[in-house]
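Thread: "does anyone have the structure for this chain?"

Original post by V.I.:
We have the sequence but no experimental structure in hand. Need at least a predicted one for the grant figures.
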Amino acid sequence: MFLTINGTAHMSFVDLPLVLSLLDFTAPGLERAIGTIDGKRIASITDDILGAVTSFLFNGKARPLCQLEDKVEEAVVVERDLKRACR
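Reply from O.Q.:
Generated one for you, tokens below.
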């Protein structure tokens, strides 16, 4: 599975966006690096994705992965190859 998260940039997936969000600090100049998505939101999205991947890898449950686009409105599945598990 290959997916993108709208509003993110490469550095969206480190602690900086969350810290800035918790401090209620805005830094428009950093948007190119950290994206436009709120730090608390990207932390929640990351938790959802990791939970779905973990469920698939360790429990063989594909449904959470198959439903990511429904659960996470910013997620866009670009390619889905789960051996027909998402039918």
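V.I.: this helps a lot. The chain has one domain: 2-79.
O.Q.: and The chain has a mean pLDDT of 91.
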